[in-house]
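How a chain folds remains the central question behind the approach discussed here. This step matters because it turns folding into a mapping between discrete strings. The sequence in question and its structure tokens are set out directly beneath this paragraph.
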Amino acid sequence: MGHMIEERRLPGGNTNGAVRVGDTVRRVPGPWTPAVHALLRHLEEAGFDGAPRALGFDDQGREVLSYLAGEVVGTARPWPAWVHGDDALRQVAGWLRDFHAAVADFVPPPDAVWREGGTWRPGLVVGHNDAAPYNAAWADGRLIGFFDWDFAGPVTPEWDLAFTAFSWVPLHARHVVAEDGFTAFAERPRRLRLFLDAYGWDGPAERFLGIVRQRVNASADGIRRLAAAGDPAYRKLVDHGVDRSLDIAVEELADFAAE
């Protein structure tokens, strides 16, 4: 008699929750899934091991990905203190630097569809666009990689870098990051420089903060636009005030240099 491998629901996932089956993850695909799988196959061929492998589709039509074994911050607040340590910040910046190097020569399929749109052209990379603490896997204090590549799409490297800094320095609104367990606001300018140095971005912090503000504004506007168009996942975000928190973050970043 054949035995069924148990399916376990994974924590998180705003829209199409993932289940773990053995050492794979199964998720309901979207129109963007073929383009994301092309990206993940490129990363595999490039020898980049900080991302899941795309393993096709199962008999229920779900996408199949390799499971990144490790600890995740999950949904509990505040997050573990190590999430906001210098070591995690350095490792995340190093991961992003290596990922951008691995993806630099990826040319998406001509029919690629990305969840939040965008058209690739030379000079852009297909960024992760959501390399935040809730999408990271860790083992013994080491960053294994990032999962949930649904928001991957063509951007400038700085655009991807801006969201990652926003999430990890962190540069989000004070009330949001305080809930996550971060209150060392006076440390943020030093942590931002540490992050940029570890990535290898050597421009002035002020110019980078301008990019962060543009990136966060675009994120808030995108949430409102997609909610207005009737997307239930984005309507939920608006109901929870996520777009408003992003607006507050942009306002606060105007005074960031004075911290």
Notes: The two ends are 65 Å apart (CA to CA). The helical segments are 33-45, 86-103, 157-168, 174-180, 188-199, 205-228, 232-239, 242-253. The chain has eight helices and nine strands.
